[in-house]
Amino acid sequence: MIPVIAIDGPAASGKGTLARRIAAHYGLRHLDTGLTYRAVAHALVAAGKPLDDDAEAVAVAARLDLSAMDRAVLAAHTVGEAASKVAVMPAVRRALVERQRQFAETPPGAVLDGRDIGTVVFPEATAKLYVTASPEVRAKRRYHEILAGGGEADEAVILADIERRDARDMGRADSPLRPAEDAHLLDTSDMTIETAFQAARATIDRALERH
Ligand code: C5P
Questions:
Q1: Which domain holds residue 61?
Q2: Is the residue at 209 inside a domain?
Q3: Ligand 1 centroid vs 75 CA: distance in angstroms?
Q4: Atom 5 of ligand 1: nearest residue by CA position
Q5: Cα(210) to centroid(ligand 1), Å
Q6: Of ligand 1's atoms, which has the minimum distance to the CA of residue 11?
Q7: Residue 210 resides in a domain
Q8: Do 53 and 154 belong to one domain?
Q9: Are residues 60 and 160 in the same domain?
């Protein structure tokens, strides 16, 4: 079986940066599965369709080109909010999970980051990490990211958004955000990206030896 590394965690936990580093280090393909939900939400809005139109959302999911998702467009805060609404619909999840599995099963293997990779998409993943940080630390990181990009933001508003998105992602009936029982927990609140990467690497190296 080819290696699949599952990285889950809440918004702004640092899982995306970590996933990209891990994929580069091990020579694996990388898929940010959050982008797949964002792309579906963005397409619905662009077509003037309501976010709970699950037939249209499933059709968009089925024809989505995973290699052409535009991170710059999909990164918008409003798209993230819309994505978490689209992501509560089981039919949409089924369609996107199928696409995500196909991506990961293509050699040489992949790193997938999201909310349900270790619990639903790949319960048999080679290694599973659950990356967290306190809501306050996540809000601060996001705030500094926006300032560094030349934007303006209010840290208290970002914190409220993060807490609302956590509640929606953890509270939904289908595939709620939670650590898999066999996931390695990585709390990055007091870690630099380098420290987090070294900790992740130690876990993944051990898992690959057993693989
Ligand atoms: O990670 P990102 O912020 O891009 O994800 C956007 C939204 O997509 C999340 O808030 C969540 O509702 C949804 N999502 C999901 N399952 C995944 C990845 C993302 O439900 N595997």
A1: 32-107
A2: no
A3: 12
A4: 34
A5: 30
A6: 3
A7: no
A8: no
A9: no
Question: How far is 58 from 66, CA to CA, in rounded Å?
Answer: 15
Same domain, 16 and 93: no
What the block records as the tokens of 27 is 């020579």
Closest approach atom of ligand 1 to CA 100: 21
Residue nearest to atom 13 of ligand 1 (CA): 84
**Mutate-to-test residue for ligand 1 from 31, 37, 89, highest number of ligand atoms within 8 A of CB:** 37
Same domain, 120 and 194: yes
Q: Which residue's CA is minimally distant from atom 20 of ligand 1?
A: 87
Name the 3-class secondary structure at 207.
helix
The count of structural domains within the chain is 2
Per-residue pLDDT of the chain (211 residues; tens, 9 = 90+): 899 999 999 999 999 999 999 999 999 999 999 999 999 999 999 999 999 999 999 999 999 999 999 999 999 888 998 999 999 999 999 999 999 999 999 999 999 999 999 999 999 999 999 999 999 999 999 999 889 989 899 999 999 999 999 999 999 999 999 999 999 999 999 999 999 999 999 999 999 999 8
Give the angle 50-53-57 at the CA atoms, nearest 5°. 110
Which CA distances in Å does 76 have to 35, 39, 82, 83, 127?
Answer: 11, 11, 10, 11, 30
Same domain, 115 and 103: no
Whether 166 is covered by a domain: the verdict is: yes
